[in-house]
Structure formats: C-alpha cells, structure tokens
Amino acid sequence: MLIFPEGVRLATSTEIPFDPDLPELLAKISNAQIEPGYIVHEINDRLFKYYIEANVNAKQVWPLFCSLCKILFPEESQPVLGDISGETLHGEYANTAKMLELFDRFQFYLANDCSLQFGLGNSSPEEICEVFVASTKHFQIWTNTVDSVEKIMADYDLRRVENLQFIDEFPRVTTSLEYKDGFDGYQDLLEYLTKLVS
Fold first, then answer.
1. Residue 61 main-chain phi, psi, to 5 deg
2. Whether the predicted pLDDT of 101 surpasses 90
3. How many distinct structural domains can be found in the chain?
4. Which of 25, 47, 79, 92 is the most exposed place for a label (fewest CB within 10 A)?
5. Has residue 134 been placed in a domain?
6. Residue 13 maps to a domain
7. How far, in Å, CA of 191 to CA of 11, rounded?
8. DSSP secondary structure letters along 23-86
C-alpha cells in the first residue's frame, strides 16, 4: 500500500456522509490497492504524445519532482501553483535550478498539504511539457519524451502498473497541517509563493 502524505487518508465508516451506497463504498475502500507505480497513456495530440500518472510514497514526492524537472527542463521552466479548488496560476519563466531551490525550503508543505498543488512546465505553441503534483500528491506528466521519464521512474524503483489506482478515486479525509516558519496556513504560503514567482 502507498504511504500517503500527512494531509490525506482513506475515510472510515464514520467519516462518510450518509449515502445509500455506503456498503459498496466501504467495500471499495477495504479492497483498495493504491500502490506506488505509474501508468503511461499514449495520446493522439499535436502538443504532447504521452500523459503519465504516478503514485509515489510521501517521502519521494519532492525528490522525484526535482529529478523529473531537472531532466525535462534543464534550463528554464514556468511554475504552476494552485489550491484544492483546482484553479492554478502560471508564474514567470525562470531558471529551473533556481526555481527548485526557491521551493525547497517549503518541500514538506508542498509534498504533504493536500490543499496545495504545484508543478513546473515549459510549453510553447508547438509542445506541452509539464510535471504537476495534484492536491492528492499523485503526479501528472505531459511530455513527448517518455523514455527519459521512465528512466527516472526506474531510479526510484517505480514500475508500470496496469489499472493503477489513485486515492482521489476513493472517499478520503484531508486534514490541515500545522504550519510554522511564520505562515498561518496553506493560503498564507500560497500567497507568498505566488508573489515570488509572479
């Protein structure tokens, strides 16, 4: 079973609002096989050929993100920041290494707070390439170069898994993290990061 980030877990029977399908939902949770791994979707799109989704254990979220971005965006990239609502902000292009260094001190919150989502990308009218970590901390990757992504996945002992399950397919509970470093919560951190990259 996947090791989840601190901010999310599968719901228990007492945490699911009344639902006539409760027995089926509980059975689905009981039989969940949410495991580390990834799945590659071949896409017939002129802007990208592959859409890759991946589950990684919580401690691997930030290291894997950095490894992917350094390979896919060796020079410049554009930050993507958002909250659980799904709305995202695209910041200014900057040096990838400097961008990762800027985010590094907040890696615990980015990798564990399920009210935050983030990514880096480098896109043009001809191509989309982006590494995005959704609020539930599974990876979404749009790219034309699947081989380089799979090499990184192998470095983290991640393998292709058919019918890979993700936690956002199940009833779940998200919890607020305790913030330090002068921030009151995820909104405060998101506002701070948004100003840095705008």
1. -60, -55
2. yes
3. 1
4. 92
5. yes
6. no
7. 30
8. HHHHHHHHT----SEEEEEE---SS-SEEEEEE--GGGHHHHHHHHHHHH-SSEEEEEEEETTS
Provide the token pair at 135. 């609020």
Angstrom distance (rounded) from CA 153 to CA 156: 5
Residue 156 lies in a domain: yes
Q: CA dist 196 to 77, 79, 92, 133, Å?
A: 14, 10, 10, 19
Structure tokens at 28: 């689905």
| CB of 43 closer than 8 Å to CB of 51 | yes
- Residue 104 in any domain: the answer is yes
Distance CA 120, CA 126 (A): 17
57 touches 43 (CB < 8 A): no
Mean pLDDT, the chain, integer: 92
pLDDT tens digits, one per residue of 128-154: 999 999 999 999 999 999 999 999 999
| Residue 193 buriedness (CB in 10 A; 0-12 / 13-18 / 19+) | buried
